[in-house]
Amino acid sequence: MDMLIWLGACVSLIGLAGLVWCIIRVWKARRAGLGEDELRAVLQKVVPLNSGALFLSVIGLMLVVLGIILG
User: Fold this and answer.
1) CA distance 25 to 19
2) Collapsing DSSP states into helix, strand and coil, what is residue 33?
């Protein structure tokens, strides 16, 4: 079950890295002083990636908990 815990931790870290990337991307767009339409376009591109990264983080944490429970 150690493998399941490590796999979950890796998946969760990948998801966390994706979330950090989304935060940085939106932060840079806001600091660039983009207009409302350009900022909205950036946000529309980031939202699906943000959701996917959050999903990966949750799945990773589920794998860790499952590995702990089964181990």
Assistant:
1) 10
2) coil
**What six digits make up the tokens of 43?**
């946000």
C-alpha closest to that of 41 among 27, 26, 23? 26
DSSP 32: T
**Residue owning tokens 């890796």:** 10
Q: What is the pTM of this model?
A: 0.86
Label residue 33 left, alpha or beta by phi (over 0 means left) and psi (-120 to 50 means alpha): left
10 Å CB burial of residue 39 (0-12, 13-18, 19+) is: middle
Label residue 1 by pLDDT band (50, 70, 90).
confident
